[in-house]
Amino acid sequence: MKKQFIIIGLGRFGSSICKELFKLGHDVMAIDSSPERVDSMRNFSSHAAVANATDEASLRELGVRNFEHAVVAIGENMQTSVLCTLMLKEIGVPLVWVKAKDVQHQMILEKVGADRVIQPENEMGIRIAHHMDSEKVVDYIDLSEDYSIVELVASEKLMDQSLLELDIRARYGCTILAIKRGDEVNVAPMPDDLIKLDDILVVMGHREDLKRFEEKGV
Ligand code: ATP
Ligand code: ATP
Ligand code: CA
Question: For the RCK C-terminal domain, which residue ranges apply (predicted)?
């Protein structure tokens, strides 16, 4: 379903979100105070406008109120990002996601009502560290402090065995959510589905269980 998004701040983070949402077929309004930045997004957004993120009148004039979901991607200038977030929430935008540069910035954003705070450099660093920690881990998502989803490459150990035979849930407390094979994704694996060499297993579980499965099971 087509959704309406507004992206304020078109640095590397904001512009990549803008382009991707537009490519996915959504209505995206791109805003930045720099005319050059705005121009560079003209072909990758539904509407691009020059405006100051902290000027409430301009934001209202642009119809920000009609958008369901906004992203504030101004990392370096904390004051601007906090003020803009506050205004968007005041105006009544239901979902406001904001980029933060550090923990202090994150805490302030949460206080002024940001619905989600993202620290891209920090989060990407953590994911990359997990890829580096184990060559079996191809992707990694934290669900909470304790629970994660990892994508693991299946080795000979699991080759040609069924999920029933492997009994991963009982032995490791982990759940196989999906099995990827080339371009195909089996999102509802059945007990008698066989695992092939180099399949990618999407596995959910407690961090410690996942680590145990990764080291001993896969
Ligand atoms: P990146 O994602 O590239 O790391 P960043 O988080 O470091 O970006 P900045 O480089 O500080 O953030 O700003 C991102 C964008 O926000 C820039 O294009 C900048 O022109 C724009 N910007 C900064 N202040 C304002 C403002 N008051 N109103 C509108 N846009 C602004
Ligand atoms: P971030 O991940 O925070 O966005 P960045 O990619 O923008 O970082 P910089 O802030 O330019 O990169 O530098 C990152 C780190 O590299 C800094 O701690 C800086 O001190 C260090 N650094 C920069 N140049 C050198 C150098 N020639 N030798 C060693 N360290 C360096
Ligand atoms: Ca930056």
Answer: 135-218
Starting at the earlier edge strand, list the strands of the sheet with 184-186.
Answer: 137-142, 147-153, 200-206, 175-181, 184-186
In CATH, the number for domain 126-217 is: 3.30.70.1450
Q: In the predicted model, is pLDDT for residue 216 greater than 90?
A: no
- CATH superfamily for 4-118 is NAD(P)-binding Rossmann-like Domain (3.40.50.720)
pLDDT tens per residue across span 60-90:
999 999 999 999 999 999 999 999 999 999 9
Any ligand 1 atom below 6 A from CB of 87: no
Q: What's the CA-to-centroid distance between 83 and ligand 2, angstroms?
A: 28
Among all ligands shown, which has an atom nearest to the Cα of 33? 1
Decide: 81 in ligand 1 pocket, CB within 6 A. Answer: no
- Digit-coded pLDDT (tens) for 23-61: 999 999 999 999 999 999 999 999 999 999 999 999 999
133 pLDDT band, cuts 50/70/90, is confident
Q: What is the 3-state secondary structure (H, E, C) of 50-93?
A: ECCCCCHHHHHHCCHHHCCEEEECCCCCHHHHHHHHHHHHHHCC
Cα 125 to middle of ligand 2, angstroms: 14
